[in-house]
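One such given next:
>
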Amino acid sequence: MKVVVDFDLCEANALCMEVAPEIFKVDDQDLLHILIEHPDEKYRARIQEAVRLCPRQAISIEED
């Protein structure tokens, strides 16, 4: 799986970071970073929750 963020849509609300801090980080300049672009399957449920919670629908999962 690959985590994809549309940075044109992202507002760095940090909801994704709250549910999956191993995957997402919002820095001091309010910029979102993907820490693990190809995470292990064990993170899938939390990434799916981040996708669901994103107010701008900027996060998606692509299957490798």
